[in-house]
Amino acid sequence: MKKENGSDSHNEGQDLMVKHGALMDVTYRYMKYIYDVTRPFFLAGRSDMRRAALLNHPTHVCEIGTGTARNLILMAKDRTGNQTKFTGLDVSSEMINFARKKVAKANLGKRIDIRLQDFADYLKKPPQSRVYVFSYSLSMIPNWEKLLRLAAATCREHGGRIVIVDFSTMESWPVWVRERLRKNLTYFHVFPRYSLESMIASDPAFDNVNVEISSKFGGYAAVLTITF
Question: What is this structure's pTM?
Answer without folding.
Answer: 0.83
